[in-house]
Amino acid sequence: MRIMIKGASFCLLFFLSSFVIGLDAVQANPNYRDALAKSLFFFQGQRSGRLPKTQQITWRSNSGLSDGLLAHVDLTGGYYDAGDNVKFNFPMAFTTTMLSWGALEYGKKMGPQIQEARAAIRWATDYFLKCATVTPGKLYVGVGDPNVDHKCWERPEDMDTVRSVYSVSPSNPGSDVAGETAAALAAASMVFRKVDPKYSRLLLKTAKNVMQFAMQYRGAYSDSLGSAVCPFYCSYSGYKDELLWGAAWLLRATNDVSYFNFLKSLGADDGTDIFSWDNKYAGARVLLSRRALLNNDKNFDSFKQQAEDFMCRILPNSPYTSTQYTQGGLMYKLPESNLQYVTSITFLLTTYSKYMSATKHTFNCGSLLVTSSSLRNLAKKQASN
């Protein structure tokens, strides 16, 4: 039986929006702790490669053990996308970044599930390390021919479709997928900083190298790889948002001022009312606004203002809202896989609410006063829907 979900990353983000808003209420309705556990459990069903003895989903077994063979490298591991047997690194890396962000912001409330979250993150980052280091000058960004795979209904243990290998390089750049991979590695390096310092250092070193590649060789991976990623995971928003996102995570992980200087030079001022595997502007701004709010660093006020502009476009009673809602109160962004946008935006609502609450910060959308409770209540409504 295939899991028919458009992009594993979208389904898995549900746990982010569920655990951040009330894990302390274990018996609450809805039960966020139970939702978190089950959402993390889903990762095990998506694993590719040689499965560990700790694997709990026993109807899954080893698969994709020859991944990378066509390029004479080892690219085993990582996650399959949705109910398919393709490994699309672009959305997989976004999932990993968000998992790491969730663990960094809310890990103390996750109880024993933090171990499962780390395991889910590491399954991806072990794979990304291979993709970024096995061949100097190349970043591998996917395995499996999607055009063939999507026509073939078979479980990964039995797949007999070609395991094509895709990469970006200086002559065929992919700043978007490289920037997202760097973000995933940098964010994960902080998750493992105390529990596995050696692994954390390796992740951060690799993140810096991949980010340098993304910045130096500009271009969209959609242009380089064509039908290998389009129309499945084209970079519709371009690559500037991933450069912003990757640099924001490297800045948080390193405090290296060169990343701040790069951020300022990007001129990434596009307004948005979306946050997804493709468009990272809003996420980067919320992440960067953390310094403005928690550290009172005026250098980051512009990012705070952009984050609040995003919130004003989301709040239903804001005079600047550009977000539709169903009669039941659920956000409606796009007709295909709408919940992916609901869950990712909800994560930003709860996280910015957390920053606001810590500093007793409020802001205005025109005449509407927005408090941390305003964002939190909207987030709770999305989770209950």
Automatic annotation (TrEMBL):
Record's keyword terms, sorted: Carbohydrate metabolism, Cellulose degradation, Glycosidase, Hydrolase, Polysaccharide degradation, Signal
Signal peptide: 1-28
Catalytically driven reaction(s): Endohydrolysis of (1->4)-beta-D-glucosidic linkages in cellulose, lichenin and cereal beta-D-glucans
Record-listed E.C. numbers: 3.2.1.4
Domain Glycoside hydrolase family residue range list: 32-383
GO BP annotation list: cellulose catabolic process
Highest taxon in the source lineage: Eukaryota
Name of this chain's protein: cellulase
Organism: Lithocarpus litseifolius
